[in-house]
Amino acid sequence: MVGYFRGVVEEVKKVRWPTRKELVSYTITVVIVCTVMFVLTYGFDLLVTRGFELLGIGNS
């Protein structure tokens, strides 16, 4: 068991951690992609809902 944790510590030492600049850049990228996906999904949902309403399908 101790050997396992020593191995884990050695592997963690080999990890190249991102710089602060990279971390900020990656975070901004993720937020932008999530926002774009939300807007696209919301827009598609609105279009489908309106289409069903025009066809008389749904709870409206």
From TrEMBL:
Keyword field contains ATP-binding: no
Membrane topology recorded in Swiss-Prot or TrEMBL: Single-pass membrane protein
InterPro entries, per the entry: SecE_bac (IPR005807), SecE_sf (IPR038379), Translocase_SecE/Sec61-g (IPR001901)
Main subcellular localisation: membrane
GO cellular component, one term: plasma membrane
The protein's name: Protein translocase subunit SecE
Highest rank taxon of the organism: Bacteria
Stretch forming the signal peptide: none
Keyword tags: Cell membrane, Membrane, Protein transport, Translocation, Transmembrane, Transmembrane helix, Transport
PROSITE patterns, alphabetized: SECE_SEC61G (PS01067)
Subunit (UniProt): Component of the Sec protein translocase complex. Heterotrimer consisting of SecY, SecE and SecG subunits. The heterotrimers can form oligomers, although 1 heterotrimer is thought to be able to translocate proteins. Interacts with the ribosome. Interacts with SecDF, and other proteins may be involved. Interacts with SecA.
Annotated GO MF terms: protein transmembrane transporter activity
Coiled coil among keywords: no
One GO BP: intracellular protein transmembrane transport
Described function: Essential subunit of the Sec protein translocation channel SecYEG. Clamps together the 2 halves of SecY. May contact the channel plug during translocation.
Compartments where located: Cell membrane; Membrane
Pfam families: SecE
